[in-house]
Amino acid sequence: MTKDRVVQALSGRLGDVVDASERRRAEYSSDASNYRVLPRAVVFPRSDEDVAVALELARDNGLPVTARGAGTSVAGNAIGPGLVLDFSRHLNRILELDPEARVAKVQPGVVLSELQRAARPHGLRFGPDPSTQNRCTLGGMIGNNACGPRAVAWGRTSDTVRELRILDGTGTERTLANDPAVLPGLAEFTAANLAVLRTGLGRFERQASGYGLEHLLPERGSAVAKAFVGSEGTCGLLLDATVELVALPKAAVLTVLGYPDIATAADNVAAVLACRPTAVEGIDARLVDAVRAHRGTVAELPRGGGWLFVETSGETPAEALAVAERLRRSVDALDSRIVTDPAAAAALWHIRADGAGLAGRTPDGQPAWPGWEDAAVPPERLGAYLRDFADLTAEHGVDGLLYGHIGDGCIHVRLDLPIADAPQRFRRFLFDAAELVVRHGGSLSGEHGDGRARSELLSLMYSRDVLDVFAGYKALFDPAGVLNPGVLVEPRPIDADLRLAGLPLLPASGGFAFPHDHGDVSTAVHRCVGVGKCRADTRAAGGFMCPSYLATKDEKDSTRGRARVLQEVVRGALPWSSDAVAESLDLCLSCKACRSDCPAGVDVAAYKAEALYRRYRRRPRPIDHYSLGWLPRWLALATRLPRTANRLAGNPVLRRIGLRAAGIDPRREVPRLADRSFRRMWGDLGGVVPPAVPGRVGDISSTATEVGTDRPDVMLWVDTFTDAFDPEIAWAAVRLVQSLGYRVRIPGRRVCCGLTWISTGQLDGARARLRATVDALDEHVRGGGIVLGLEPSCTAVLRSDLPELLPEDPRAAATAEAVRTLAEFLAEQPNWQPPPSQGRTVVVQPHCHQHAIMGFDADRQLLATMGINVTEITGCCGLAGNFGMQRDHYDISVAIAGNGLLSALRTAGQESVLLADGFSCRTQAAHLAGRRARHLAQFLLEQ
Predict the structure, then answer these.
(1) How far apart (Å, rounded) are the C-alpha atoms in residues 770 and 754?
(2) Cβ pair 230, 143 in contact under 8 A
(3) How far apart are the first and last CA of the chain?
């Protein structure tokens, strides 16, 4: 049976859970590693029976099978050339949780944070807590033997496992616990290899490379389940797991210890461990510098160039503090800080968390890659190892930012390895690094597994006898070698299948300039290294990414999935015009949240615009590119006869016909035009500013208000939406600015930022409009004037897209620097204070583009100063400009609104005020919830 027929047969038996499309194969061609292997098909099993059928057909036809959870493996152990089984989509239930016995039974696709959430009300948690805990699955953790910062107290995943139910490579279901008889030949295999198991394995806690076969030893309880943990999908497919839970500490204290450098900090780890901490993490000064550069500030640290973050716990706060005091007295730190306030401790831990994400770039901004990100040595050797490792990286001319689990001897670092242009140097470095860690008695991997990244190097770490034992163990479970071949046993070369090797450059050409990626589209889309934060629900922590994935739970709709498809395009494997690209980008809202929330700074909104530009340039486009993409043109005409336009739009039959013809979903309402646009009113008043801004524009009189002449003018950016639909917002802003003694001006002629042209990929048209904008604002900007934006999406274009679309025009950068949001402008006024509004309840919907580009800090601080009770919605409103208006997007737009905006409004009640500066956000709230939202300018004047 040919491979195509295998996929057909599989689809015939399993139905739509099998996907062999070009797009799907691209999405699953990589994980968070350096490697790319296109699978033959992806399977999303719904049941144990689906897993068994997929394995049976693959085995009978010589197709490899690779298990996958969230795809966050940095070692390349979640990709393969045959069938990839994604357990996260359907097999993701917590089957049992017994608080008395402190155990949980889970399917392999359960996300760790979901298990933690379920256990927390019982005062329990799962011990290991890797940094990817808000998206990594228990199946993946068992596959890699994951750890995290608190493994120093609660152990590795293998320490938590009681029982595993699996299918081995023959398709036989087995329940692994502590009885070797469960697998024919295992007891005899163990007895025959006792000497090797006792001398070659389990020498220190983080010896994670290879199989953990020391657990098979009788003196270790013949723990068959624990030995299976860390086998990286090479011995069986997990169906469910019974794991132990631990009690949450009743009180915890953070102590930060400062040392001259991180190696000196590591020298002192024995004294730290003597105090039995629950976590010991280390960070380097350069990592702190990177966080400071990114955020502008970091929480206060004690003196030093390297720090240990040590968490101690106790039954009471006093007991935890006493341990911290004893710790401080017993170490040789330069300086220290004990933190008992949870909020202050969280701010310090954020340095570590943010630094882990920023480690994807070197201090000089070059991309940094995994490959040697996970080595571990016995903790007493760590200081010496770090000094030798610094010499090694200098010798090879590579650089990276250090952090890690110092208490366990495990160091994380991503390096600017020359994968793309010199894979042979990449190979030499990894061999030299492996030899160095072996000299220090260490392990190639401390928690991430070996995968494709390190399996070939196992021969440097282990004797031939140990390698033969590994091969014999796998053969007992998987005699045909169908499960994840090329990993651990008979490994693929470490420089095979590299995603970046030989990748051609794709210079920017007429679209975005991609200045942060050296003008190369290929470098831009390869910012995505697959860490998968876009699959996590980070709204509780203020995150907005990725609204479409949160609604569909489909990898296709994640930032990572889209980047993977575009990576196939830039390597020439897919054309820009392919259906795969169109399907991948279809549900991208262009919200820009990934630009700020993704640790690697992936900007799918820009990539989507670029893709549409390259596909349709000088070609006919979809009708909505003209109806919505040229919206400012149509509104300029409609505002001449607003009453006529409103009457036509208000006729239900005409509205539905018109919307369908325009490529817009007929379930959408058409926003009502104002009776007079702001620009027309401004012209009618001869540029004279009215003295007050009551609730309705029609009440405004033409009496002038005197303003000061000692301040520069403020240029009010009159965006299309405010001008046509909500001119009262502009008048409110004028009144506010005027009250501070500024004279307000507007551009002398109608200009546009080109937002709708950008979102539909009409970048030639966008650049033409931005050039006209720069011309209109240039004199004002050169004179030191401020440009005040009211619509966040347009303000973001001027702040960000303008210099990236007009990089050759030096005026573009100067204009971008002059742009302010209203809250930013008010925050810069030294003598202005917002009106108090103690006890008022406000629900605020930050605009996605503001979140991503300008940030919401100024608005947040302003509302806090007013004493308002604020519910801040995190996540997109779902309309997102043209996205939610387009045909076939209505349902997903509503679903996204339900995840944030609508649920927040239901909880808050009708008496609360809804604040939303974005026209899209206000429109969505009015249409779906019947709620009228206020702009910040209006809200401030109404107090």
Answers:
(1) 7
(2) yes
(3) 75
Distance CA(727)–CA(635), nearest Å, equals 14
Rg (CA), the chain: 30
CA distance 103 to 12: 38
Note the residue count of the chain.
943
CA–CA separation, 582 and 23 (whole Å): 10
Nearest to 526, CA basis, from 514, 535, 536, 541: 514
Tell me: the pLDDT tens digits for 876-902?
999 999 999 999 999 999 999 999 999
Note whether 13 and 57 are within 8 A (CB): yes
Closest Cα partner for 561 from 9, 86, 5?
A: 86
Cβ neighbours around 817 below 10 Å, total = 12
Burial 528-557 (b: 16+ CB within 10 A, else e): bbbbbbbbbbbbeeebbbbbbbbbbeebbb
d(CA 128, CA 932): 46
Helix (H, G, I), strand (E, B) or coil at 822: helix
Provide the β-strand partners of residue 533.
none
Q: Phi and psi (nearest 5°) for 251?
A: -150, 145
The pTM for the full model equals 0.94
DSSP helix/strand/coil, 713:
coil
Query: Prior bond to 546 cis, omega within 30?
Result: yes
Range 282-286 average pLDDT = 93
Q: At 355, is the pLDDT very low, low, confident or very high (cuts 50, 70, 90)?
A: confident
CB neighbourhood size of 315 (10 A): 10
Tokens standing for residue 343 = 């909020």
List pLDDT tens digits, range 51-98: 999 999 999 999 999 999 999 999 999 999 999 999 999 999 999 999
pLDDT: is 259 or 688 the higher one?
259
